[in-house]
Design goal:
Length: 434
Amino acid sequence: MKKYRIFVSAHQKELKEERLAIKETIVSNSTLRECFDVFLFEDLPAKGRPPVSTYLKQVRDSDIYIGIIGNEYGIKGKGSLSPTEKEFRTFIKSKPDALIFIKGKDDSKKDKDTQKFIKAIKDSFIYKRFSNIEELKVQVLHSLITYLDEKGTFSKASFDQIICHEAGYEAMDEKEVKNFLENRAIKLRVDIPKITIKDFLIKTLKVVKEENGNLHPTNAGLIFFGKDPSEYIPQNEIRIARFKGVTRTEFIDSKEIKGPIYKMLDEVEHFFRRNTRLASKIVEFKRVDIPEYPYEAIREAVINAIAHRDYTYRYAPIMFSIFDDRIEISSPGGLLPGLNIKSLEGHHATRNKKICDIFHETKDMEKFGTGIGKMKRLMNEHGLTEPKFLEEGNFFVVTFNGPGDRILDLVPSIPKERQVDLRELGLNERQIEA
């Protein structure tokens, strides 16, 4: 695989932390580390640092220029230009891929020369603004992922199929795999394979790969079966909260849920049941428990969010918000090209084929695009309106509207485990009606 060279340019004193953060973003990401080499001034020894002409050669030899602009312009050199602007102008003479990041929203506080530099950039180049280092890291990550996508780097392997070289086989939890196999055997009505768990991961699921005599899990392998997936994939998180009222101004309960997928799903269910209402009413001498929402519909939405989200948003978790009147589940990444809200139902397209395939192994996901229809059907059967689907920027949001004060009017299909025959408890009709 070709490695692209990146030159990071910025005022040395003012923006030192930002430059180092950019390199850390790249070297800490297994995908970016394999695709990019980064040049930083700080990487060179203090003694014997080369002259400006050598830096400019580094600029010309680079494939990507990342320029960070703060408040200070810098010391002017030959041609009355700061090193950052000189490096920028040298690069754009022959290359188009200049990525510019401007710190802060108020340019009036910047040096006059910095303001002129920004104006020159605005006239011809796309730039992004950031307020803090975390924002900068996210923006750089997205920009470099987009660059690789345009170069066709991701046409061969999606995020979930990429090997995580930072993790060895010891990062996998064989107990989690055993639970998966037992669940798979029940759901598919098949026997548990008579092979070792390691062989199942390598040969059957193909989520552990061998390279240079060492075993490494893929990202999908870590997400499903890792002991601590978030150590390597920090975006593997569901942030869940119960808010007071109908806005996000005050929360009653909250939790950051991390871990392998099926443990996360269990924790989501526990939180959901703890923070939603359960009513009871008498139907034909039987006490029936009626949940505020059909959890199977909610679970379907969470599974879809896990399976279809964009994992290149490194610091963006799935958001699960419970309000008095609704539930919202938001996942990073909009719809794939060619899809729109109206055409979702009945179509199956995903960024993460391997994740979907593993969910299919336990019948938690079908391969025919039935998830949207299933959510609608379950909500209708429960006596609620169909869920709403919306793109908000780079996020996909599913909204389930609740019953409000009508919870006792819901007429769901009641499973036997939620029915209690009061006559069997020795109650007569008058006591039951009371």
